[in-house]
Amino acid sequence: MTLTKAALRADMHARRAGLSAAEREGAAKALAAHAGQLLSLAGGVQAPTVSTYWAIGPELVPKPLETALIGRGATLCLPVMAGRAQPLVFRKFGHGDALVERTWGIKEPSELAAVVVPDLLLVPLLAVDLTGARLGYGGGFYDRTLRHLRSTRTIVAVGVAFAVQVVDAVPTETYDERLDWLVTPGGLARCRS
Question: Is the CATH code 3.40.50.10420 the one for domain 2-190?
């Protein structure tokens, strides 16, 4: 299984790196058109809290989508690593807030930012299939976090991907948590198990 995941990770890194700057920018802008649909997934929660992510490398940048979500009344938060084998913690975040650079160059809110619990998670990924199987970077942070949150409340996990990251099948293991929805620049798709 590890070799299969490793091969898929290498392929996905190459696919993403092969996108031009114009393609990446266009994709980021196209995501913003889906803000209203994304917020409707929060189960009628007024002014839902949405966990976004700090894009690293050639990940799909969520900033235009974040702006659209804020414009529709959402509160944003960013994940913060609490420890190697721990679920992520979420701290409130707004554009213009000072962020602290942490592991792997990921920027996080400071420890002074309020801890919140998101209603909707936007989840970065390397590969995804339409069953909601997601391939990340191998640290298991989102798997632990989704398992923890799902044990305490209703949460909606939405994978964020370029179209080239959607594959026929992602290899999974027993500890892998599936996504509920997928959003690409082309629109939303409900994941079917």
Answer: yes
